[in-house]
Amino acid sequence: MSRTSWTALKSERLAAMTDAERAEYEQAYAEARLAAEVGERIRMAREAAGVSQRELARRMSTSQAAIVRLEAGGVGATLTTLQRAAAALGLEVSVELRPSA
Question: Which of 1, 15, 71, 99 could form a disulfide with 43 if both were Cys (CB 3.0 to 4.6 A apart)?
């Protein structure tokens, strides 16, 4: 029994999608990627500040589990959540809107 690689399976599924399905997939992928990137930035800022997940959660009045999900990109952070995290780390939020590539 041969196994199909993840890359091959992904290629097959993408090729079988309609244009509408492909657009929906691309949108969902972009959202997940952004959530992961934001989570990574929060984790890096927290570690640079020498703050544990538990301490950040305390400062934000939330649970450590919520911080884990945020840093893992499991949830899309709202601007309010980003502002709370930034304030808890002594930072500020900056949003940049620019043309798409």
Answer: 71
Q: Which two tokens stand for residue 94?
A: 């900056």
What is the structure's pLDDT at 75? 85
The one-letter code for the residue type at 58 is R
Buried b (16+ CB within 10 A) or exposed e, 28-43: eeeeeeebeebbeebb
Total domains in the chain come to 1
Which of 16, 67, 23, 59 is CA-nearest to residue 42? 67
Spatial contact of 76 and 35, defined as CB atoms under 8 Å apart: yes
pTM for this one?
0.81
Torsion-angle region of 90 (φ positive above 0: left; ψ -120 to 50: alpha; else: beta): left
User: What distance in Å separates the CA atoms of residue 6 and residue 81, rounded to the nearest whole number?
Assistant: 34
Rounded-to-integer distance, Cα 49 and Cα 89, Å: 7
The CATH number of whichever domain residue 67 belongs to comes to 1.10.260.40
- Assign 23 a pLDDT band (cuts: 50, 70, 90): very high
